[in-house]
Amino acid sequence: CFRENILKTAKALVEDTKLLVSGAASSQDKLAQAAQSSANTITQLAEVVKLGAASLGSDDPETQVVLINAIKDVAKALSDLIGATKGAASKPADDPSMYQLKGAAKVMVTNVTSLLKTVKAVEDEATRGTRALEATIEYIKQELTVFQSSEVPEKTSSPEESIRMTKGITMATAKAVAAGNSCRQEDVIATANLSRKAVADMLAACKQASYHPDVSEDVRERALRYGTECTLGYLELLEHVLLV
């Protein structure tokens, strides 16, 4: 059963996470071993999740996407955790990098838990839509945290690109309202998948545009504030759909 394989491999990944966190305070060799072990485990986990997605059959592509998104979230969280571990290596316990490490570990465990909940929901058609929506809400909250951080984007884009990305929010909003009215599982799952991409794209484009060389500090602050407000408003909409 693919679910048992995913559960077993996910548990191994949680153990790897613990080793990574403790490895920050130990030798470089132990840290390297923990990083290598977690990289091997995430590769195995990705494979069993892909097999699980394939076992659903091609007549349910939206649920397959939900599963694939769940493992992508875990992989991204692991990458961030390894980065945070490197940053915290050999630092004192009260160093800010240690708090970043604990935060990254918490996100990692949250995403593994989310993956396991999603796998369980996939086997119960009545809860698939609800679970997909819950996972998307969690993902958007994590993306918003990254958006609100002081980290400067690697590249900048034009204000026009940011405006173009807001069209995805408009489409996703219409889809969310329709799903709230129909309450059909497949509509809710499709909304979850579309919402996830639309909000992530908007946040990325907004932050990149706000750091364009021609943008003033005042305009940047306003753009970032409106990006946050838009996301919080959209999260509220998804919460209502979930309630319905």
Give your account of this protein's structure.
- With 244 residues, the protein is mostly helical.
- The protein folds into 2 domains: 2-125, A middle domain of Talin 1, CATH 1.20.1420.10; 150-242, Talin, central domain (A middle domain of Talin 1, Up-down Bundle).
- Helix content is 83%, strand content 0%.
- The protein starts with a helix and ends with a helix.
- It comes from Crypturellus undulatus.
Short description:
With 244 residues, the chain is mainly α.
Q: How many beta strands in the DSSP annotation?
A: 0
- How many helical elements? 8
CATH arch. level architecture of the largest domain: Up-down Bundle
CATH hierarchy class name of the largest domain: Mainly Alpha
Between the first and last Cα atoms, what is the distance in angstroms?
33 Å
Subcellular location: Cytoplasm
Domain Talin IBS2B: 8-119, 129-241
Main location: cytoplasm
Protein name: TLN2 protein
Helices and strands in order:
Blueprint: H1 2-23, H2 28-55, H3 61-88, H4 96-122, H5 128-148, H6 159-182, H7 185-210, H8 217-243
Helix pairs in contact: 1-2, 1-3, 1-4, 2-3, 3-4, 3-5, 3-7, 4-5, 5-7, 5-8, 6-7, 6-8, 7-8
Which features characterize this protein?
single chain, 244 residues, mainly alpha, A middle domain of Talin 1, 2 domains, 0% strand, flat, Talin_IBS2B, TLN2 protein
